[in-house]
User: Fold this.
Amino acid sequence: MSTFDASKSPARNAYDADVPPNLLNFMLKSWNPKVRKRPKVLPGTANFRKRRNRLSRRFAGDVLVIPTGHSKVRANDTYYPFRPGTNFYYLTGALEPDCVLVLLPRGDAHEQLLFVEPNPGKTDATFFTDRKKGELWEGYRPGVPESHARYAIVCKPLSELDSTLRGAATTSNARVRVLRGLSAATESLVGAAGNDQAASDS
Assistant:
């Protein structure tokens, strides 16, 4: 069974040592509660929505899957600055890696969903054990509700992408179009959902 695994495990190298249990226990407790303000709506969200609506009309009845891509390794455990996929950015304005825009046919239009990586905050050890995405090292990153507020589109956690695509495959005979070359993990999910014979480049 194929799964979307771009964000399930923290970035590790062969020489990484396991985190001592006492350190893990220490790092996960006694943090002062921090109330995060919802981010302001990104300027231009109305224009991004109009672009998605035009795309919806152009491919009426089709399931559209547009990933933004992933961070790329520059050397060992350092990464190039992330640049979102051009088509994805044109439709959403989102700058974070690993996101996927999905348009599901609903009558004459589409339900527009943005799948993003959740941010559990300091309740999850990855905030300090993941050198690639941990906030202790990389700083703030938005989660699901923050992305919804920022980009003015319904957002869901990446963990639900698989079931969403499978549901679309079983409830309709819609053709699935996936933008290829940006996320092999997303492409494999489309195939696992039973739509590999219908998938094509947008």
